[in-house]
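Self-study notes.
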Amino acid sequence: MDILSMEIARQDWELMTCGCRRTGEHIPVDFLRSLDGPPPDRAGEGWADNHVFVQSNLMQPAVATASFVMAALARGVPVEHRRQLMLVLHALANGEQDDIAEECLGVIRGGSWLLYGEISSGRDIDAASYAFEMLELIEDESSRFVKFREAVRENLPSDLW
């Protein structure tokens, strides 16, 4: 069993109400299926959009979803999906329900090295931008973040310098 499977299994998906009004059980199933194809046009289309978040409103499965997305990034996902996953995390950390968004940010904070890694990799400027903006939200990262930003300027759009 890998880290992603363990993270999915530890959640009580059947007790969560999804944005589509079903239980959350389909969310990790749909997510895993989405990794087998090309990334969707919209962030989380088919598994998070209108399920975990509806526009900027966070639904009950948001924190559990943030946990398995971080686990997926730690385990490794196809490169073409990283931008979409960073955008989903960004939506979860910036949702309208401050208490849920803060819990999601707490999950993301626990894997902050994944965000730094995304920025320093130079793989995708959009994924790096989303990671950068999430790191800006994490107050206890401020001193590391200032030094890091200078070191990776070339991997970020100029409006984030």
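Second protein, same conventions, sequence then structure:
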Amino acid sequence: MYHVYIVRCADDTLYTGIAKDLQRRLDEHNSLDKGAKYTRTRRPVTLVYSEEHPDRSAASKREYAIKKKMSKAQKIRLIASKQEAVTAESC
């Protein structure tokens, strides 16, 4: 299982990536030199969105769609829609 994720950086920008182990990848973004070059100077990062995909190919296609085809406003709406769904589930 692969995860497509979006993190919010300390400078309020968004970074999208894929990972097999989401928690390990978040730890790398926040503490090790293995984090993406983009996030190294924008720490700490906070996970704001994630979704699962069955294989790397599907995850890569979705990552590309989010990174290259969505505006920041569209990404914010995507994040908000996921948060609303989680809130509705917990009620």
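Instructor comment on the second fold: The helical segments are 22-31, 37-40, 56-69, 72-90.
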